[in-house]
């Protein structure tokens, strides 16, 4: 066949004639197909067009070539009409085959084009992030940093049989992480005996659910250290969290007081004769600026006890991370653990919806472990004595805590590939919420985003978290619960994750609007549901070991998990070094390095696991379990 669009000279002896009049029926059908836009005719999938107003050549009967010109009139005999009708099936088959080949060509181009992953549409049941903070949330193109690795991950997951290939990280690789030896008692310097009451301690805790939980347990330890009476802590309203919830809205007051009654004295309200005091005027108001972060017990005895003895009352305002972890007397650490793991029980309203959430994730009705019993109380049926739970009959799930909210992203000063829109938006957020950070940065030479990422100081993006899971061998069918749905960038940011792991759900997906209605506008209570779902999961994956939620959940899982509650802790610094080779690294090498990173992190955790049992980033060197 000659070159497309250029006439082919007939060979010597060939027959040439006009056949337009003899092919009126054929020409009518042909023109009708063109007008109706038959996709298999006249257009390549890639966008190029054939030109149909030029002469068409058909190889005819015997060895002759016949020239049919669509622009000229002519006559044709019955012989040629008979030939066309005889070969009509062959002609139709030829065009159908050409259309099929073009369709196959388009499909193969899409599969092997790396940009396909970036621009592919969301699954019908994709993660829907409503009301997000990002200005570029509705952009069609998601900010993808590692398209090559995502493409390789997609191919790797597609090749694996989820029923035959099961990631070993569904199980705890080092069960000894949940066994511990109690510490020997240490001498503790105290302010006096229990009978020698020194005064009252008020605490107004700032932050969200988990930071406030830490503050409560620190307050219990400080009250014991100073032999003071603790008033049930108050929770400050935050412009970030916008939650007016108080202690009794989240935790059971009576359980809290009863569990700790032999350790410290706790009351619900300050005595009436002290309520009218101007605490700031008499010097009893202690802010975070007055007390060092992670202060030692001796600092409390030296600086706080004199105020308590003089005025009979001290009010800690803020109280964010104001008690240290190393060194800490054993009995104070034990008391802090007792508060965290035993005294702080969620109110029935939260336990009830939390049990419903876990039930819908697992599709199973009974408690499977001590974790379930401790988290959900009487709102999930217990395992009958001697009965073994058939875990295969319920759904395993991985809980992923993506610490990628706008405040975290803005504070990090890192670049996440969102372009000028991202830069402007995050700078505006810093100016509104972190003015002190900007003032501090004016006095020093700021590190570049590349340097910050290399040092492991940038929060993991959803894209990076998905690559870690793929590198660990979790199949594309893995059921994943996403904790905290306020992902910066919303659907745009989540698109690469959904492409790899479509079975991602949030509490908003599993609970009806009616069931969630009592928690609307109460972010701390919603965070409590995430806490329950993460702590009860088969595998918990964190993206920031410094996160309060991640640290408290991992501690809870070690305390009650019995060696069967694995937690994945990626090192941001090591991961940044691996991802820096995005353009050259082979997928097998990527998998090996990701798995080595997680396994070595778990071994380090074993050697000093007590340091992370309570909260970020460490606790006491030894673990305490309340008897």
Give a description of the structure.
This protein has 627 residues and is of the alpha/beta class. It has 26 helices and 13 strands. The protein has helices at residues 24-35, 78-86, 88-112, 115-119, 147-159, 209-225, 247-250, 253-259, 272-275, 279-282, 297-311, 330-343, 348-362, 370-376, 406-412, 419-433, 435-442, 449-454, 462-471, 490-500, 507-510, 513-516, 523-535, 548-560, 572-579, 587-607; strands at 56-59, 65-68, 200-205, 229-231, 234-235, 266-267, 285-287, 313-318, 398-401, 480-483, 504-505, 539-542, 567-568. The strands form 3 sheets. Strands 3, 4, 5, 6, 7 and 8 form a 6-stranded parallel sheet that branches. The radius of gyration is 34 Å and the shape is elongated. InterPro entries: FucosylTrfase_pln, GDP-Fuc_O-FucTrfase, GT106_glycosyltransferase.
Quick structural summary:
By secondary structure, the chain is of the alpha/beta class. Among the domains are: 247 residues, no CATH class; 144 residues. Helices cover 43% and strands 7% of the residues.
Comma- or semicolon-separated keywords:
single chain, 627 residues, six-stranded parallel beta sheet, five-stranded parallel beta sheet, 43% helix, disordered C terminus
